[in-house]
Amino acid sequence: MSDNVYDELKERGFIAQTSDEDAVRKMLGEGTIAFYIGFDSTARSLHAGSLVPIMAMVHLRRAGHRAIALTGGGTTMVGDPSGRTEMRQMLDEATIRDYGRSIHAQLDRYLRFDGKGALTADNADWLLPLNYVGFLRDIGRHFSVNRMLASEAYKLRLEKGLSFIEFNYQLLQAYDYLHLFRTLGCRLQMGGDDQWGNILAGVDLIRRVEGAEVQALTFPLTTTSSGAKMGKTAKGAVWLDPELFSPYDFYQYWVNCDDRDVGRFLRIYTLLPLDEIRRLEALKDAEINDAKRKLAYETTKLTHGEAAAKESQKAALAVFGSHHSVISDNITLIPGIPTTIVPRARLEAGIGSAELFTEVGLTPSRGEAKRLIKQGGLYVNEERIEGLERLLTVRDVGPEGMMLKAGKKKVHRIIVV
Asked: Which fold has domain 324-417?
């Protein structure tokens, strides 16, 4: 295996497009470069879909390159139209700043900001004070409207309607690259493949204004083998914030991945050596679960810390086990009946019937669950659920847990810890 981190990124499946593959590979193999990825502050937390760019930054940082994590306090006020069919919700400046601080704290867990090997910046610091007319004269004159309209970032929105404020987004992102080139010597911008046009705009702007050559690299837009978007579940987004998505649920998200995704996910979402990954992905039949548990443990450790990973692993083994029928003094596995663990606190507050049946996979959607309730087709502990308002609580948990049934054949067991 080459010592060049570019080769490792390529083997792990991180690379979709590069502006010049030979030039990018050379710059990553010779000396130290500064590179950046931007994260707009559109929510309090990043989610599992953000882990591809995060892990790419980790690899480059470990290889000795200088990571710049840019939070988009300025660009978030405009809204990125890339991959969107509708305009993003407009947030106020205070909320954006607050979200940016939360995202900075999350990125610090992975990158360990020290001001040297890894540092953070917020584009609000240079975008918000801009003089608009001066910006148009100095920067806007380098952009072709025809070329911008041909960009994938805008094509989809043109069908639904593209606002003028969103049309400015590509100029602002390109200006970010120019600013970071001037102030920090940044020579590589990376991002998701939906950002290709925006990143190239920055490469072109630096060439036109500074006469310098910089590079671009994008990552594939990752989906599961079933075609689902990464980081989405029936319950919603797989947030990196433990208050929005518990470490246990995070662990379960990975341990329940499709067999076909295990090797690919181990390459992208863990730091395990490639030789170890090749061994794990070669496992067959029931042994593939060992690889899934390793995937879940490593991803949870990176995001929530080793203690949370061990606790989540212990909780999962306490419910599901792997080789034992009796797994504690008061919990016995029932062969053939799928089981889900639910924290006691959730049931003490009460969970809507439609929500829980959908969450464990007995119904494909809450709408379908509600339809079945109206038809008398959902049961808890063999008791028909009579109304949509019925909450499932700790009072429904017996010695064997809580038994949910949809129709005559689909059964699921709930265990409370």
From this structure: 3.10.290
